[in-house]
Structure formats: C-alpha cells, structure tokens
C-alpha cells in the first residue's frame, strides 16, 4: 500500500496471504466459469437526442461461492492467465445472437458494442473469429461495434493497424474505448479507419463545474467532428453533465443517469418503446 512505501519489498504478511488466497480462488472459479459458461451478458443503452441509439454488452459473473465478481476484477486476471480470448469470444457470440434475435422479433435495430481485450491483437485468430461469429449468428456486420482501448497500440502499432483494416473490411465498426486515458499518439490513432471514440469517464465526471475538463472535451469534439467520428461520453451521471454534453454536441451519452447495465428482459423494454426506425 502507499502508506508502506509503494514497491518496497515487505514480509509476506497476513493481508498478503489473504490477497494471494483470494486471487487463487478467483482464478480457479474463473476457469470453472469458462468451462461451464457461468456468465451472463448485460446491456447498457446509450442515448442520442433522448432516444436509445446503441448499447454496450458487459459481462456479469455470479459465482456460486464468491458471489458477484466485478469485471474490473476478473477481466485483468483472465488476461493474465490466458482465459480472455475464450471469454471475449463467448461475449461476442452472445451479443451477436441476441441482437439478431431482437432484429428478428421486429424490435428497434441498433448497434451492439462488445469489448475486445488488447490480447486479441497478438493473435492471428481475431479476424477469422469475428468473421465466424458474424456468419454463425447471421447478424448484419454493421450492427457490431468493437470497442478497443488505446493500449493495443503500445505493442506493434503497424500490425494492429493492419488488423483494424481487416476488421473494417468485414463491415464492423471500430470504437476507441476510454479515449484520453491511454498513451497512444493522437495522430497515429486518428489515421486509422476508426468510427467512434468514447471519452473516458474521468473527463466527464463533474464536467459541469470543471472548466479544464469542459475545455478538453470541447477540443476532442472539435477534432472528432472534423474527422467525422461518432463521440460517446461515458459515465454520465447527472442532468447537468448531460445538458452540457448535449450543448457541446456530443453524439451519444452513456451512464447511470439514463440506465445502468441491465439484463435481456429489461433491455427489451428499451427496444420496444420507441419508433422502430
Ligand atoms: P468499460 O468498457 O469502460 O465499460 C464501462 C464501465 O462503466 C462498465 O463497468 C459500466 O457498468 C460502467 N458505467 C457505465 N455507466 C456508468 C456511470 O454512469 N458511472 C459509473 N461509475 N460507471 C458506469 P463494468 O460493467 O463493471 O465493466 C468494467 C470493465 O470491464 C469495462 O469497462 C471493460 O473494460 C471490462 N469488460 C466488461 N465486459 C467485458 C467483456 O466482455 N470483455 C472484455 N475484454 N472486457 C469487458
Ligand atoms: Ca467499453
Ligand atoms: Ca470505457
Ligand atoms: Ca473505463
């Protein structure tokens, strides 16, 4: 911990033992969850001009012993122990099948976004996997948006650019998640065939009383408009944040103010209420 001086080595104390044991428990439970398919996919609607315009698929894991484990806890572990490829593929399959079912039921057609770990970009399998998932689900590719973080560009940006071009040629959309949080060069990033950026929650929180954040977001929106990128604001929690972002011309808003991530049954309601354009 910070109080004890950061990375200074310590004795293997009780709290470390507990953390180590907890970590092992999660690892083992995670392996079992992957084998048995113990995950559920939730959906968080995004809005534009007061209407639902798209949604993000987010994993939920309820372990019989550990209870609810947050994706911010288990996704990094899954990345470390090599389970993330299977987990993301599961999410993608569910997301595409579900959206296709909703289309077939005559519900509002909107794109579904799925999160892709940076680990996929060290793999040749990614493009053919996405192609296979699209084929098998029968969902039109323009309704799938892949959310990737800037961290993919740290290693081998040339290779990553190639993969992104290939993904685009399948007809899917590409979104840069947690925009502004990463370390990539803006120039390099914006040279790629990207459709959307999602401004990280840290820049949105309290934007209505933080002039620097407001200035920063306004500049991002300016650049994005010039490049014809769709811009999503993440983590919109208050009316005031919403009002300012709408006034600034942000395309889509996502956050607890409008809806938390919800299960399939609740999502259906959002897809039923409005005009089915
Ligand atoms: P993310 O991709 O940035 O997803 C947005 C996170 O912000 C979600 O957390 C969502 O529930 C939360 N959120 C949405 N609106 C608000 C808000 O107004 N306020 C606050 N405080 N939070 C809000 P969640 O579902 O816990 O997921 C955490 C992270 O786990 C995600 O961050 C994503 O990086 C990762 N993740 C989730 N599902 C998957 C998946 O299927 N594959 C991969 N690779 N990563 C996933
Ligand atoms: Ca995301
Ligand atoms: Ca995000
Ligand atoms: Ca985030």
Automatic annotation (TrEMBL):
It comes from Peribacillus glennii. Residues 23-275 form the EAL domain. This is EAL domain-containing protein. The chain holds residues 603 to 879 of 884 of the full protein.
